[in-house]
From TrEMBL:
It holds the Pfam family YjdM. InterPro entries: PhnaA_N_proteobac, YjdM_C. Residues 7-39 form the PhnA protein N-terminal proteobacterial domain. This is PhnA protein. It comes from Shimia litoralis.
Length: 175
């Protein structure tokens, strides 16, 4: 058995199929369990803990598939944590994001480029005067349980000093 005879994600050796990692035409081998998760709706299960290794693979196609599956599992805290620490070269990350389910979806990113999700906690990185409220939201203020503005990737909403305000994503960092 060679390294080419195992599932690129979980290491299974039986019932393998070739999977083409779109939009490029590179192929990897996947077991039926991984193939079903990659092609369909992925749900949190112990099987996906195997992604701790392939996200760090030296093979870009394997990293792309692992990133996409982890992105589909972003409601699971362990998957979100793994996505936060994973490093992909810019071209590999662009490839991975090109194949995500909804290309028209708005992605909210903080000042460091980390993806923000509804319910996340962020910290202000600059003093922000709040128009109409008569106060300044100070740098370092934690804003918990944020909401995403659906049609604008640069806006989030959160509660600061009891007021619900709109905050520009370039002035926050994920905590």
């Amino acid at each position: 058995m060679t390294m080419a005879d195992i599932c690129a994600l979980c290491g299974a050796t039986e019932d393998l199929s070739t999977y083409t990692v779109a939009p490029k035409s590179e192929n990897i081998l996947l077991c039926q369990t991984c193939l079903a998760g990659v092609d369909g709706q992925v749900t949190d299960a112990p099987h996906w803990q195997c992604l701790h290794d392939p996200i760090w693979s030296t093979t870009p196609a394997v990293q792309v598939v692992a990133y996409r599956v982890l992105h589909g599992l972003s409601e699971a805290p362990w998957a979100r944590d793994l996505l936060d620490i994973a490093y992909l070269e810019d071209d590999v990350k662009d490839w991975a994001e090109a194949g995500l389910a909804d290309p028209d979806a708005v992605t909210h990113r903080d000042s460091n480029g980390a993806v923000l999700a509804a319910g996340d906690a962020v910290v202000l990185i600059k003093d922000l005067p709040v128009k109409g409220a008569g106060f300044t939201a100070k740098r370092g203020t934690a804003v918990r349980n944020i909401s995403l503005v659906a049609d604008n990737a640069e806006h989030i909403e959160g509660r600061v000093e009891g007021q619900r305000i709109v905050i520009l994503t370039k002035f926050v960092k994920k905590s």
